[in-house]
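Final report, results section. Input specification for complex C-07:
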Amino acid sequence: MKRIAGQTALPPRAADAARRRLLQLGAGAPLALGASGAATPARASIRTNARIVIAGSGLGGIAVANRLSRMLDGARITIVDRKEEHNYQPGYTLVATGVWPVDKVRDRNAEFQPAGVTWVRDMVAAFDPAANAVVTAGGQRIDYDFLVVATGLHLDYAQIPGMDVAAIGSNGLASVYPGPQAAQATWAAMQSFAQKGGNAIMTLPATPLKCAGAPLKMTFMLRDRLRQAGTLDKSKVRFQSALGAVFGVKVVNDNVLARWKDLGVGVEFSRRLAAIDIGARRATFVSPEGEKEELPYDFIHVVPPMRAPDAVKNSELSWKEGPFAAGGWLEVDKATLQHRRFPNVFGIGDINGTPRGKTAATVKKSAPIVAANLVSVIAGGKPEVSFDGYTSCPLLTREGSAMLIEFDYDGKLTPSLPMIEPLQDSFFAWLLKVRMLKPAYLAVLKGRV
Amino acid sequence: MYEIWLASNIVWEMALTVWPLLLAAAVAWLLLMTAAVRRPGARLRRALPAALLCAAAGAFAAFVIVPGAVGSSLGELGYWVDVANLAAIAAGCGVAVGAFAWPLAAIFRARAA
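Structure output:
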């Protein structure tokens, strides 16, 4: 194993704790984190020579890096991620339904990383929180004083025998999640299907999901594309949920089910996609009792089970018991987003084992909180800002209209502005989704909002 | 207020994507205003009603055109928040149209006089 250039080997935990105490002494300058949280930009920086590793350069990783680079003076920040392309993932459903061209979700990571940050172009293969180090796939060992886990999650298509991500776009196979190419290929499959009509199956797994509204948006938009193509009469759209619902917030779930009833979208519950035969266009679903049923289809939208990446799942950082243990999600306190057992570790984004919210909106609200709480800890204090679990889902209901749904950990609807009706079909919500949310995302990425 | 800060950032990021166009428009407007002020016989104050008329026409056109331009339609205005937001966008477009119409009207009036 190699050590990152310019960094020295540290003995394990006791010495690291001592080092962090020293860092805290040197970080005694007052913080100006803003009373409102952390929703406002920091106005002063504190002096520290802390080594901070950020694992992952998605929205969460870069947003926190930008904030920390302004809030801290002298900190050595290292981002570890092999990915060169930055994808605007909230735009995938727009690409996959023909609203956006694919280039609108493609940018370069290098454009958004703050100056002075070290970028290790490799993936974290192992976390060793006891030794305060991460090890990359290339064998590089990187020591840290503080760690931000922003790895995102793993799309576990391997749990569906017969599934081939490379086949998305052919034989009526669609899946919006893997990336821009898959979203584009999904649109090709949807167009082809809409021209003829037929039997469509939309799936939902039982695991926590990133953008849990995406399967619903795809269903609404598919139905609308069939209507526009004039093939709705010849088509049947069925939603197969592995859960007892289609959305985790009851009032939204009930609203969507009522809409689908009116729109003629059939829904079946407790049916997990267990296997797929892409060439034969047949999908096998299984009930909790183990009963199998094979369904033919002309179009299928596959939503994969999701879990933490192996590096997190197999490390000491993952939940060891409780509802998030099976997926290996990061064991963070849901309010402070600080790791429950390793106080020098914080989590942001999809990787967090928290009740709800694997969306860009969650990162928008939680990146300032993670940065503020981390700086508090570096300064020798405790996390002071709490996250309420805010997340948002502009739920497309057809081309030209959407619902702007915002909610918290408790599933309580929390509209940003009191006049917004979350369950109202709205031009404004559509406009927000197609024109305004990417600029907002970029502002989050740059650590400004 | 956080929402105002967020909205400002959204506008800023949108402007960044078209800044050469905005710069060109700003320069063109300054040139027009300079030309209007320096032109013998030009009266900016007298040109104001014509400019306001153009602004109103621009706002009306924007109100009708914008929904279609973003893949929606007037029929999707579901409640007053939709109407208010579209009206605000249309008003912004109207101001832009009026800003250019003002010096142009002054110049044309001077030429006609």
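Chain A touches chain B at residues 36, 39-40, 99, 399-401, 416-417, 419-421, 424-428, 430-431, 434-436, 438-440, 442-443, 448-449 (CB under 8 Å). The mean pLDDT of chain A is 92. This concludes the modelling results for the funded period.
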